[in-house]
Specification:
four-stranded parallel sheet, Rossmann fold, alpha/beta
Amino acid sequence: MESLGVDMLDPDQPFVWTTDLNGIEFWRRWKIFQKREPTPVDHRDWVSGGENFLRYCNSIRGPIPYHERNVITHSHGFQVWAYSGKFGLKTRRLISIAPPFRHDMEDVIRAARLNVEQWLLVIDEDSDSVASLGGLGDGILRSSRIFDVDGCRPDKIVRIKEIEHSRILEDRLGLWKELDICSFLT
């Protein structure tokens, strides 16, 4: 990302979270596997990650100025950002790469959406089996990955062929320049 002119805020103290995939045991939420209602959602890693990200951005070292609050998330890192936004973190620009769209996150995203000025969603044009699997944890089948639900829609969607779940962060990093994705942050 440095080669693209995207600088990490503090390379010596990067933001970290557990990266646990809450809700991976999807069968606990699917009615077809149970004779009762699905179990409550456990988002504790995303909740604590969101709280910690809020505190990271509003650190006692000094808050990150709003004009520098540009965030790039990947996959379930979007859920962490969403909780931070729900908790009040103001974000200037958000680029989310291949996040799973989960029904159990819709209320959180609606609340967070009020705290982001501009949101760019980047997804594979055809399919993303990893994000689709990540969305199964909510107990609902859906084919859409574009967050097409009231209050949850991104400002802009970029669909790119053959990036799957992570290739735009790995061997197809050149697409950031080719498609001028970084200009969204300016």
